[in-house]
Write a structure and sequence with these properties.
Elements: H1 3-50, H2 59-66, H3 69-97, H4 103-106, H5 130-140
Helix pairs in contact: 1-2, 2-3
């Protein structure tokens, strides 16, 4: 055999060996990650049912979706959409609570308050009552 040809054959075998080792390492890494993910599918599906993300009758379908990368991404997409909607509703309700309106929008009729003519006894109000006048008369009266 010619030395040049033998050298090329050895180089070819070395390159093929390196490529095969890389392919096998990549496959074993992917297979290990896939096995690890498969062990978490059942507990994650159960957790999704407990938290109300998935209905009990959809548990098996969610479990099937979690076993594929595309299905997992679809579930993740839906979860992000739900979180975004919930966040928007929380912001909206929080901003609505402190917004003031004028009396005409609130339906409040402005009247002068007189505690002597009010039909409700013990009504809490910020208006001056007859009992307040009596208390202040005693407080302001220097003895």
């Amino acid at each position: 055999m010619k030395p040049k040809l033998a050298e090329m054959l050895v180089k070819s075998i070395q390159i093929n060996s390196i490529l095969q080792k890389r392919a096998l390492d990549s496959h074993s890494h992917y297979h290990g990650a896939s096995q690890e993910a498969q062990t978490k599918v059942a507990s994650l599906a159960e957790h999704m049912v407990e938290k109300g993300c998935v209905a009990a009758h959809q548990k098996e379908a969610a479990s099937d979706m979690l076993q594929t990368h595309t299905g997992t991404m679809e579930l993740l997409w839906n979860s992000v959409e739900k979180l975004s909607d919930a966040h928007t509703r929380l912001e909206k309700s929080a901003s609505d609570l402190g917004r003031g309106v004028d009396e005409s929008q609130a339906g409040v009729i402005s009247q002068d308050y007189n505690s002597l003519e009010d039909p409700y006894v013990g009504r809490r109000t910020s208006e001056k009552k007859a009992s307040d006048a009596a208390i202040w008369a005693v407080v302001n009266n220097p003895v």
